[in-house]
Write a structure and sequence with these properties.
Elements: H1 3-9, H2 23-40, E1 43-47, E2 63-69, H3 74-91, E3 95-99, H4 105-111, E4 119-127, H5 141-144, E5 145-147, H6 153-162, E6 174-179, E7 182-187, H7 193-208
Parallel strand pairs: 5-6
Antiparallel strand pairs: 1-2, 2-4, 3-4, 6-7
Helix pairs in contact: 1-3, 2-3, 3-7, 6-7
The structure holds flavin mononucleotide.
Residues 11-12, 14, 97-102, 122, 133, 136, 166-170, 192, 195-196, 199 line the site of flavin mononucleotide.
């Protein structure tokens, strides 16, 4: 499965079957997390067959990725690189659900060896879902982007991907603007809005082929 297909196929899944994640899939996902950690300086970790992190949250989550890290612009970096990890999980045939609240941060903290200054920001439930989930509703496109003149093809392709991106409570509080040839992305205040910003920048880059995200 390619990235674009993964974006289209991915929806939040909150109920999981008992099917275990095989060693080959876990290894491939860990390899991607290692690559992300090396590139970003973040601290992403996969836990499999672990029951405490999501006990009482969602349904039957026993596998999850922890998104932790430190430093400047942390939320946006977590969003950007978390999106990459989430789509890799989808490409490996896994379902997922990004969570800010629906996990036991305290329990997960006991399992993670965090370096000084690092904190757990969010987590991603992964596994084999009871269903594949459903597409979310989108705001009208004119609320999410604006463009002076005719919309270039690359911008449209970027926005087509952005419409597929998860955001906290599906708030979609961002605007992509192309004015006088300059591309800007602004986020409006809301829960986890900076994390959402990183996620939608990742999606836009995949669709458009342009660079939008800056680590600092
Ligand atoms: C930053 C962030 C935090 C989220 N936190 C939660 C959460 O705590 N619990 C939950 O059930 N879903 C959570 N979600 C999932 C969103 O509700 C979901 O992505 C959104 O409704 C869009 O649906 P979709 O993922 O199916 O496209 C979160 C998503 C994001 C991006």
């Amino acid at each position: 499965m390619e990235l674009l297909e993964a974006m289209q196929a991915r929806h939040s899944v909150r109920r999981y079957t008992d099917e275990k994640i095989g060693a080959d899939v876990a290894d491939a996902l860990r390899a991607e997390l290692d690559a992300i950690n090396a590139e970003s300086g973040l601290h992403f970790a996969l836990f499999t067959d672990e029951e405490t992190g999501f006990a009482g949250k969602l349904h039957n989550v026993k596998n999850y990725i922890v998104f932790a890290g430190s430093g400047k612009n942390l939320d946006e970096r977590i969003g950007y690189y978390g999106a990459r990890a989430m789509l890799k999980a989808q490409m490996l045939g896994l379902n997922s659900c990004w969570v800010a609240l629906s996990f036991n941060k305290g329990a997960v903290e006991k399992l993670m060896t965090l370096a000084s200054g690092e904190k757990i920001v969010n987590a991603l439930a992964v596994g084999y879902g009871e269903t594949q989930g459903n597409p979310h509703k989108n705001k009208p496109i004119e609320k999410l982007c604006s463009c002076d003149g005719e919309m270039p093809d690359w911008f449209k392709k970027g926005m087509d991907c952005v419409l597929l991106a998860p955001t906290a409570i599906n708030q979609q509080k961002f605007v992509f603007t192309l004015k006088n040839g300059e591309l800007t992305v602004k986020a409006k205040l809301g829960p986890c809005f900076k994390i959402d910003l990183g996620i939608v920048k990742y999606y836009f880059e995949i669709g458009s082929g342009k660079t939008v995200f800056k680590a600092e």
